[in-house]
């Protein structure tokens, strides 16, 4: 047992005085409660024995004092003794009581000490337990947070998981690094971040696959919306001519047309949730890995784009793949446009998307060109053009450049034009082969209306034809309405194909392609075919040539009307002005060739009549000039008129006038050339007057046939110069600078022929020298000199 530490000694004298003060000798009962503190202090000081000895000494001293006092006061002494005895008795009792209390205090103090030691030990244990509990609670919070991170990852709350990991790393684990599990958790946080990164990346990959699956629906909806928009605008443009110059996506269209905003990536039919992408961007930004995500996203999207174009492409009507491809592309780039607009700045660069777009456009052009390389079906080209045009207008509205696709449209148009040209070329060839160069006959009004609905006629001709009876012989052959119908169909199909094309810079090329096609068909197939028929003289007669002339004139009229039609069709598109067809000039030349063929045929027949003519250009002296025209001329004119009213009845009046003029001019010139210049070496004035009588007769008959007198001027003026004795005047006019063919009195006279006639007159009849002959010789020589001088001046 550990010794109790000694307390400082107390003053026994003071304790005794205190005891004395507390003692009440008059009290009937002992005041033990006041003795407790004294006894306790003596016990703690372990001075019980010393106190008792001191008390005994005090008692002896007091006894002596009492004895001393008693000696004087015995009674008081006795009383004091009695009191002292009582005190002593009380003291003894008190002593026993103090001993008992001491024992009780000793026992209580020992128990209290044990309990106190147990309490201290318990307190130390409790403090350790509390520390352990606090540590465990901290560790449990860390472990709970770690488990919560796993739960957040499992619940796809990745950013919250990253925040929790950051809190773990920066706050909670810092004070627990002396624990092994904390070190292990600290080392595992990068791996947990990797799990978050892998999870969001996996979700983004799944989202990319979903986008690929839904892109076609997105593109389909966008293309359908554009088609509806085109239809609405077409209706408005038809109602208001001022709107025809504007195209879809133009500023005017955007203002006038009530544009309905569509969200093609989020609607009733398809919905693309972009949250996986946004979440992935957010997580990668939190991990400071934006560039890695950008690279991965770009590679994935480029791979998807390449996958779209690596599929085979056919334009089979039973399995159309081209529209599906365009739908995929539209959906692809609408998603890209949405990503650019909604993701943080810099994530999806517009330059990267434009580069991808440019690459895909180039490949689309290549695969379309390859797929259509051997295609000869115009319907396929029309369908492809419509799909490409809608595709262009759809993405043009999202500011994607479409120059290459416009070039593809022009290529399709050129190929389509070539196919149309080949197809109509076959139709034209068939029509030209089957033509008989005979007038077309219609049996009833219905057939007539069908013909009139496709043919171009002069104003009023259709009304005259409708007033005629049936069966009706039309002025042109069956070839003409067939070719007119083909030309109208060709033009309609051209402009239907080119309708809505937005590349205005290529309108000139479109017009040139159409012009080239029409010229090629009309020139090579029709006009050249007519010329080949004219060259085959043995296979056609004069009536067929006349029909060819009529057909050629109608084809020339068709060219003129076709130019007007093209101007009318081009005007609504802002491309005013006429489109000049070379075929028009070619048909004019063909018409001249046909007219020349008639003229040649007439000239051959007229030459036969001229072969019957007999003229005596040097009659005997005194013989009067013939007063009546030659009889063969009457037959010739009658034949000529009969031919014009029967075989050539279908010729247009203008052509008839030309044929008449050419025939009369041929007769007039042939009378001079064959009967005057070539028939005889001699001539006299009466003989020439006989020829002049026939010329005057022809002039009268020509006037009846509305032939201009200019056809007779070369012969008539030459004979008049001689008969009227105006050779000197004519020579003087030449000498003054007048030239043949000018605007003067004898301008139609050919000086060379006049010289020849003067030479014949100079010889006279039988070569006899006469005064008249000498005069004519002088006139001839003067004329030759003047002609020589004029020729020198002209040279």
List its traits.
mainly alpha, 795 residues
Explain this structure.
This protein folds into four domains: 46-155; 199-400, no CATH class; 416-596; 615-792, Tetracycline Repressor, domain 2 (Orthogonal Bundle). It is rod-shaped. Helix content is 72%, strand content 1%. The chain has a two-stranded antiparallel sheet. The mean pLDDT is 80. By secondary structure, it is mainly α. The protein has 26 helices and two strands. The longest helix has 81 residues, at 74-154.
Q: How many domains, in number, for the residues?
A: 4
Mean pLDDT: 80
Portion of residues in beta strands equals: under 5%
| Rounded radius of gyration (Å) | 68 Å
Cα(first) to Cα(last) distance is: 168 Å
The count of DSSP E runs of length 2 or more, i.e. the number of strands, is 2
The main β sheet shows up as: 2 strands, antiparallel
Q: Helix content range of the residues, please?
A: over 70%
Structural class: mainly alpha
Shape: rod-shaped
> How many helices in DSSP terms?
26
SSE sequence, one letter per element: HHHHHHHHHHHHHEHHEHHHHHHHHHHH
Q: Could you provide a short overview of the structure?
A:
By secondary structure, the protein is mainly alpha-helical. It has helices at residues 12-22, 36-45, 48-72, 74-154, 158-172, 180-239, 251-256, 275-286, 290-309, 322-342, 350-371, 378-396, 403-434, 445-454, 461-466, 479-498, 507-535, 542-570, 582-610, 631-645, 653-678, 685-704, 713-723, 727-735, 751-763, 771-794, and strands at 441-442, 472-473.
